[in-house]
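Justification of computing resources. Each target in the renewal requires a structure prediction run like the one illustrated here; the chain below, 149 residues long, is used simply to show the kind of job we budget for.
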Amino acid sequence: MRREIESYPDDESLWRETSGVSNPGGTLALHCAGNMRHFVGAVLGQDGYIRDREAEFTARGATREQVVAELDSALNAVERALESLPAAVFDGPYPARVYGRTLRTDVLLTHMAIHLGYHLGQLDYHRRLVTGENHTVDALSLSDLPEAP
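Resulting structure tokens:
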């Protein structure tokens, strides 16, 4: 997401609304950051984060730098939470009900990864629509993944 946000040519285009697209790029990024901070950082990591989901969808005008800072905060919260958990947690129930359901932690985390990828694709298309650019920023590059030992 960082690459996508940084590829917008200016802060205004990050928030430009287009016909048929209800969430501009900035909204998608803030929503993903809030989602990860809540479900992983706050619930699993118990870091005290309080989510304001409505603000994720209504806030406008943050700079690209501010949005990237939110994404970085989410990444840090996720890393801290996941590194602190014993492996057995992932096979057990997620510690909070999600939309009235009890899910296994690993299942919820898989869903969250897919949700993040879904919104990353939307972000890429939004950037292309508002800039007229027809190129990828290689947001999901396999070369960035760590190799197995």
